[in-house]
Specification:
The protein has helices at 2-9, 140-153, 175-183, 223-236, 251-257, 278-282, 297-313, 320-331, and strands at residues 14-18, 24-28, 37-42, 47-54, 57-63, 75-79, 85-94, 99-104, 115-118, 126-127, 131-134, 162-167, 191-199, 211-213, 241-243, 261-269, 275-276, 289-290, 293-296. With 336 residues, the chain is of the alpha+beta class.
Length: 336
Amino acid sequence: MDWVRTWAGRRGDLKVKADEYGNLLVTQKGRLPAPPVVAVAHTDHPGFVVTSVDGRQLAVEFRGGVRPQYFDQARVEFFDQDGRAHRGRLDEFDHEKSQGSVSLDRSTPLVAGDIGRWFFGSNRGGAGERFILAPACDDLAGAAAALAALDRARSDRSLRNFGVLLTRGEEVGLVGAIGACRAGTLSPETRVLSIECSRSFPESPLGGGPIVRVGDASSVFDHEMTNRIADAARAAGIKHQRKLMAGGSCEATAFVAYGYRSTGLCLPLGNYHNMGNLDEVEQGKGMATPLPEVISRADFDGLVGLLLLSAEAVDSPSSLAGRLDERFESQRHILQ
């Protein structure tokens, strides 16, 4: 959040506002050409939080969803207020309470509130020609894509209504997005583009293009917005996928439930929530190895372009009704 404030502060035509729950809304100054279109991405990622310190022993809780197999005697690292890493091992973990204890390799200045993650060793990720690996892509890649799209939108006066909302606490039940809805952080006429990094499956592969997401495990999104975006992407020749992605629930569900017009866009994600070999682990065959998450560079670049296209497409006329009318006129004679 500090980084985003600094980034926006270097751009005089942007303004940043925090709501009462710490979500950040970044918008463009000036009169809007149409009701707002806001890309929403969350800034948290599953990880550990220190609750107390006793010498080299930490009491911790885990926030987010990761399968129990990955916690067994796992190597972890925690970061102090100066950003220095301190390593240790997870001694025990109560999955019902999401709480456990960590033995550190040596005494440290860690305090309650410091955060931790799996220790990946030398396999910390990097950017290649085809893929980007990082300790956290979900949803920092979505946040980065949203800000990159906003940076480009600044040069187009017709996109002055495009903004970005960065939320907190998604991994513990969409609570940042729910708070934004309850606080009225977005005006009622705002159209919401909810961005996610979602677990890749054979039918939604990395490199297949960013995904126009029609729904999740909890809800179906605004069908008119979804159709308009998919039609525009197809007409523009943007490589993309159109999928339900029902493996979990995303923030679009919260916005839909609270009355906002909302749809979803996502990046296919490998090593979802740092769970390496997940397909094999679910089948009881593989070793539960924490690994950096991975996305396709081409998918990421495509998502930035798709966001800008979507900001325009949500106000385009619907082509579906027109195609249906044409079909009816050409075939109505069989009904008479």
